[in-house]
Amino acid sequence: MDSNVGEYGMARLGIFMVLVGLWRFSAACPASCTCSISRIACIDPGPGIEDFPILTLDDMEMDINITDIYIANQNRLFDINDNSLKYYSNLRNLTVINTRLTSISSQAFNNNTRLQYLNLRDNNLSTLSWRTFQNLNMTSFPLLSGNPLKCVCENLWIKLRLQEDVESPEKEDLKCIDERGRRKSISRISPPDCEAPAAEVSPSIVTKKEGSDVAAVCSATGSPAPEIMWNTENLFTIADTNPLDMESILTLSGLSPSDNGRVITCSVENIVGQSEAYLQLNILFRPTILELLEPLNLHHWCIPFTVTGNPKPELQWYHQDQKLHEQEYIKTEIHESLGSVHHGCLQLVNPTHIHNGQYTLVARNEYGEDSKVIDAHFLLPPNDYPDTESPYYPFTTDPPLPPIDDSVAVYVVVGIAGVALIGCVLMVIILKYGRNSKFGMKGSSSVISNDDDSASPLHHVSNGNNTPSSSEMGHDAVIIGMTKIPVIENLQYFRQSGSMLKSDTFVQHIKRHNIVLKRELGEGAFGKVFLAECYNLTPDQDKILVAVKTLKEASESGRADFHREAELLTNLQHEHIVTFYGVCVESDPLIMVFEYMKHGDLNKFLRSHGPDAVLMADGQHSLMVELTQSQMLHIAQQIAAGMVYLASQHFVHRDLATRNCLVGENLLVKIGDFGMSRDVYSTDYYRVGGHTMLPIRWMPPESIMYRRFTTESDVWSLGVVLWEIFTYGKQPWYQLSNNEVIECITQGRVLQRPRSCPKEVYDLMLGCWQREPYMRHHIKEIYSLLQSLAKASPVYLDILG
Ligand SMILES: *[C@@H]1O[C@H](CO)[C@@H](O)[C@H](O)[C@H]1NC(C)=O
Ligand SMILES: *[C@@H]1O[C@H](CO)[C@@H](O)[C@H](O)[C@H]1NC(C)=O
Ligand SMILES: *[C@@H]1O[C@H](CO)[C@@H](O)[C@H](O)[C@H]1NC(C)=O
Ligand SMILES: *[C@@H]1O[C@H](CO)[C@@H](O)[C@H](O)[C@H]1NC(C)=O
Ligand SMILES: *[C@@H]1O[C@H](CO)[C@@H](O)[C@H](O)[C@H]1NC(C)=O
Questions:
Q1: Which of 268, 411, 424, 710 has the fewest CB atoms lying closer than 10 Å?
Q2: What percent of the chain stands above pLDDT 90?
Q3: Does the residue 636 lie in any domain?
Q4: Which domain, by its residues, includes 687?
Q5: Any residues with CB less than 8 A from the CB of 234 and at least 6 apart, and which?
Q6: Atom 11 of ligand 3 has which residue's CA nearest to it?
Q7: Looking at the structure, do residues 43 and 77 belong to the same domain, yes or no?
Q8: Is 254 annotated as a binding residue?
Q9: Among 440, 456, 486, where does a domain finish?
């Protein structure tokens, strides 16, 4: 109870705060204005405003975020001062038109760096300073027409800026008024004694030894005479400036090495503008070793050091006073150079006790040298292990080991431990990856490659009871639609190999000029799929719509596969398998021509005709009618018919799912896809190894565990397809991760009965999901059961387009 009261109290407090905020803000909003959270508009001439409506920091904390200020018709507004816009740091658009605005301070927009659009038309501005606009990064120049601008030097910068600004609508016709009261185009003015400043520094680079003195002159041009400023802030060297008429002399006494590489700016400015020139310091000095530290075991062992010196010093190492000869296993590496400070390592790969001892680093250049010494201790000699664990030797706790031979054993122990560690890390990575893969597989990475390793469901020939061993497509695979489907030769269905390939197979060749591409339907792993018109394909029709699949890369073996697939496909004709019309091989790319199925893949179709359809509607479908039960049965029955045919041809599909079926007019459903499902529906697949993607949510236990794919495993998948149909295209086990799905299926759990699914149909699904493959319904049985169920509830096809 108490906590409820507390929450209620908090909620009330929240509302109270919001109300207070709005109230305070609207109190700040002047009578002639309307204020919202993002916009202030003051267009009412009476009573009018005298100053900008000023937000305070308190207002900013109340989520008020003004991006737009619009002020017009104000008779008492004369200036924009330093504070007017200070707190509107998100301001994008500022319009001040038809007011008495006479001056804008040079700091007015300092805090409005996001200002993009500035309209100052029809005010009383006679001069404007370039300084007002110097911090702004606007895409276009402020709009200024309708102001009594004077043709004076102070406004010359406007002409110069307009010349640079290609876009400005006022480029040509912005006018100013000369001393005799005549209006002139501002692009033509050239006031006397008025010139933009320029600067030159001499010398511009100084190369001198530390401690020396330097003098540099910054000379300026421009009119009126510009102000010259050297920026000597933060210099270590003592600096002195001596301004003269049109130049300024900088004197540096006793150059400090810390100023090496520094650039000193001389800036000159007058009312026309501003310019800069630079002096660069290159200070020569003897090396200093700033740091030399005890060895660290990073990826390799490293003795870290930091040296400085200009020119960059030569480095020489000594080990026990012997010159160290650097080679692949012991070498100096510079990791980072910041100016003249260099950070690096003496890197040692697998050092042993013989590398222990004193290391001396000597850094030299022509101005001198420096050296430092460090003691390094990598390993104890083999016969010298203490009883306690050595900090350098975490893997062994064994007491002293005998010398020589057994030092090898130490490495073995280390090695094994290392392997075990790497193994653990890999396991973690694999588990983690597997768990996340439901999300991680999205996108184009889900490409199936032809040279796949083990068990891609669509690319390998299975011998029926084992993992396919070869990565060759051989003669025993076929594609349905755009998907390669392997042929199975198991004991039950064994036939002479190549029996599918009648030697007289005649693949129809279609002339390229008979194919007119209309638009892209999608892009799959193998290439693009287009909607096209095909002429002279059938004797009774002049032209028909077809789906055209192009083969992306046509290597020699790719071409061979293409022709073999075309032959196999020509032999696979059934009313519930997508019709294959032929190929076009006149030139690249190679093309396969298929029947066009108007409504696309079945999964999408189901979703767009289910209870969630409104959420997914893309505005194109005017008929968002929910599928009826009898229509669902009609769909299921047609897929079953196609599967009966495939089984009779001794094909195992391996990837039967609604995403791989297509829907045409009058609820005609066929098996086949355009090879795009792995891209579009990548979360339906589980990646194993590098390339293999398994549709585990559609697979029976024996396929998951032993990669065994048979007509019986297709029956299991058909059961899942029924479930998909009766859930309007939900993903099976959508609430579970891939690893959880594998666990569920292999433990014998099955999908639950969908809410709108009749008991007879769910019984049929359960018949498909028997754990023992031989216990499952036969595909013919399923077909006739669905047929009789469908007859019992006739279909009213005319409901759907
Ligand atoms: C204010 O609005 C702008 C644009 O709508 C947005 O980019 C910015 O993050 C907002 N700032 C705050 C503090 O809400
Ligand atoms: C600029 O606006 C921010 C945010 O409103 C404010 O904190 C800051 O004080 C302003 N800076 C100046 C120079 O006024
Ligand atoms: C700023 O003004 C431009 C031009 O009038 C307009 O297109 C844009 O929508 C305005 N932006 C905002 C944030 O009001
Ligand atoms: C415009 O500003 C000038 C001073 O710069 C002033 O004399 C004149 O009265 C102003 N005009 C109007 C219409 O406010
Ligand atoms: C100015 O704006 C452009 C794009 O509008 C951007 O690329 C650039 O970084 C901006 N410069 C500064 C100094 O904000």
A1: 424
A2: 43
A3: yes
A4: 597-801
A5: none
A6: 93
A7: yes
A8: no
A9: 440
Query: What is the rounded CA–CA span in Å between residue 85 and residue 705?
Result: 70
Catalytic residue among 259, 452, 601, 655: 655
Alpha helices, DSSP H only, in 571-628? 602-608, 613-616
Q: How far is the CA of 64 from the centre of ligand 1 (A)?
A: 9
Ligand-binding site membership of 524 (annotated): yes
| 607, 745: one domain | yes
674 CA from centroid of ligand 5 (Å): 45
Q: Is 582 annotated as a binding residue?
A: no
Whether residues 655 and 763 share a domain: the answer is yes
Does 204 have pLDDT greater than 50? yes
CA distance 430 to 653: 29
Q: Which residues of 288-297 are buried (b: 16+ CB within 10 A; e: fewer)?
A: bbeebeebee
Q: Is residue 507 part of a domain?
A: no
pLDDT of residue 700: 94
The residue contributing the CA closest to ligand 2 atom 14 is 86
Q: Is the minimum distance from the CB of 126 to ligand 4 under 6 angstroms?
A: yes
Is any atom of ligand 4 closer than 6 Å to the C-beta of 124?
A: yes
Considering the domain architecture, whether residues 368 and 435 belong to the same structural domain is answered as no
Is 80 exceeded by the pLDDT of residue 431?
Answer: no
Ligand-binding annotation for 523, yes or no, is: yes
Active site residue 655: yes
Same domain, 361 and 419: no
How would you class 693 by CB atoms within 10 Å of its CB: exposed for 0-12, middle for 13-18, buried for 19 or more? Answer: buried
- Ligand 4 in reach of 749 Cβ (< 6 A): no
Tokens describing residue 164: 């640079």
Verify that 617 and 714 share a domain, yes or no.
yes
Shared-domain flag, residues 434 and 370:
no
What is the tally of structural domains in the chain?
5
**Ligand 3 pocket test, candidate residues 117, 120, 138, 143, most atoms within 8 A of CB:** 117
pTM of the model: 0.48
- Ligand 4: nearest atom to the Cα of 100: 14
658 found inside a domain: yes
Indicate the DSSP class of residue 769.
T
In this structure, which ligand is nearest to the CA of 127? 4
Closest CA to 202 of 249, 170, 245: 249
CATH number for the domain harbouring residue 692: 1.10.510.10
With respect to residue 801, please indicate whether it lies within any of the assigned structural domains: yes
Phi, psi of 30 (to 5 degrees): -65, 160
Instruction: Note whether 269 and 316 are same-domain residues.
Output: no
Higher pLDDT, 66 or 443: 66
Domain CATH for 40: 3.80.10.10
